[in-house]
Amino acid sequence: MIPILKLKDLTDEQILNRDIQAEENVSAAVDAVIANVRQNGDAALLEYTEKFDGVTLEGLQVSDEEIACAILQTSPELVDTIRTAAANIEAFHRAQVRQDLVLTDRPGIVLGQRYTPIEKVGICVPRSPVAFPSTILMNVIPAKIAGVKDIVLVTPPEKDGSVSPAALVAAAVAGVDRIFKVGGAQAVAALAYGTETVPAVDKIVGPGGIFVATAKRKVFGKVGIDMIAGPSEILVLADGSCNPKWVAADLLSQAEHDVLASAVLVTDSEELAEAVQVEVERQLSLLPREPIARKSIEGSSKILLCDSLEEAIDTANRIAPEHLEICTDDPFAILSRIKNAGSIFLGKNAPEALGDYFAGPNHTLPTSGTARFSSPLGVDDFVKKSQFIYYTREALEQVAQPIAAFAREEGLEGHARSVTVRFEEEGCK
Fold first, then answer.
1. Is residue 4 situated within a structural domain?
2. How many structural domains compose the chain?
3. Are 413 and 324 found together in one domain?
4. Does the annotation count 363 as an active-site position?
5. Are residues 190 and 66 in the same domain?
6. CA distances from 308 to 240, 299, 312 (A)
7. What is the mean pLDDT of residues 73-100?
8. Rounded to the nearest 10 degrees, what angle do helices 244-255 and 270-284 cross at?
9. Same domain? 141 vs 266
10. Does residue 343 lie in a domain region?
11. pLDDT at 315 over 50
12. What is the pTM of this model?
């Protein structure tokens, strides 16, 4: 049963619940996988696919024929839904595209900033229980909008060696260039260093378990990464006007993800807290993934009872959740006071699943309190910024001595001379 806890009785550690321990020896195991992939390439990938996924593959790349068959195997209704979701995601993310800037407000000086896309991106998609089509759309579409030329997708195969048809449909709709049947730390290693079949990329994005997260951390620097994602989280901020059935269902929508997922209700209503506790227990039995959800509810989830709605808002900001639902009659009155959250769902008719699948904003979000300093995945994650500077000789001459003095203050005569040398010889241009 999900516990009801009074906020005033809890320590910060009990409130934040961020001390999730990784499995023992994960780091050493990932080191071994990366080393094996770097040395043995495709052979290592095939070995690990057989070992971890129970599949013996003849080849790693998904063929055009497999994609065509997947489209035929998928119901027209689901294909239409995937296309509609893709259109919503594209519309939202196109609004994020930045424009180059140029400053010419001072004589003889041109300053600016330009955006260029990353050239090659690898996207990891876990199989839990299938390769998520929604994750493919959310990661691929912003990359396409940014102008990434080569998008590679990796995902573990099913027991029969296939990739789920819906995932392949989503990949086709989103515009993935190549798909490979490999997952886990070995997929991250392949994307970072390349194999005979899997190309090396410039950046790796996408979710995964502890082995994927650890591998991404280890290859960072060789390649860029989006974030180190932890278990999924939801925080429902609710007052006494909420329907406890709805709140319970929203909590369970995240609890079914993972045994370590965190589902938290923060409320100032004891009556709502008690009703939600009963509803969560009742609705658990309705879920096919009830064993997973129950471990999450009993291990990482809670109901926090606050003395006031003000205290509830402060608590939500302290926790900085991945998903934040504001289930009140006037959520916009609270929105401006939310400082830390990945994605915010406003009102009683915006369940978290709306954002996961359909509305348009991205569902790849900061977890484990990192919403205090990081943001949802977006177009910015797939571009680089470059600055440029132009001075005429006359403009440089006006600032040469101050620049040289500044450089000498730091003990860098070479820096100073790189400016002053341009004005030492009469007539030098």
1. no
2. 3
3. no
4. no
5. yes
6. 11, 26, 6
7. 97
8. 50
9. no
10. yes
11. yes
12. 0.92
Question: Known catalytic residue: 322?
Answer: yes
Residue 381 inside a domain? The answer is no
Helices then strands (H, E): number in the chain? 17, 14
Has residue 17 got a pLDDT over 70? Answer: no
Query: Is there a domain that residue 8 lies in?
Result: no
- Note down the domain range covering 251: 230-373
Q: Which of 158, 256, 279, 322 is catalytic?
A: 322
Q: Residues 354, 249: one domain?
A: yes
Round to whole Å and give the CA distance between 218 and 333. 43
Angle of helix 270-284 relative to helix 290-299, nearest 10 degrees? Answer: 150
Task: List the strands of the sheet with 302-305, edge to edge.
Answer: 4-6, 302-305, 262-267, 233-238, 323-327, 343-346
CATH number at residue 311: 3.40.50.1980
- Mean pLDDT in residue range 192-211: 96
CB contact set of 155 (below 8 Å; sequence gap of 6+): 124, 125, 126, 127, 131, 163, 167, 179, 180, 181, 182, 183, 187
Instruction: Give the confidence band of 18 by pLDDT, cuts at 50, 70, 90.
Output: low
Claim to verify: residue 62 and residue 188 sit in the same structural domain: yes
Structure tokens at 85: 């979701």
Q: What is the pLDDT of residues 254-263, one digit of tens each?
A: 999 989 999 9
**Active-site residue (options: 323, 325, 352, 363):** 323
- Are the beta carbons of 371 and 132 closer than 8 angstroms? no
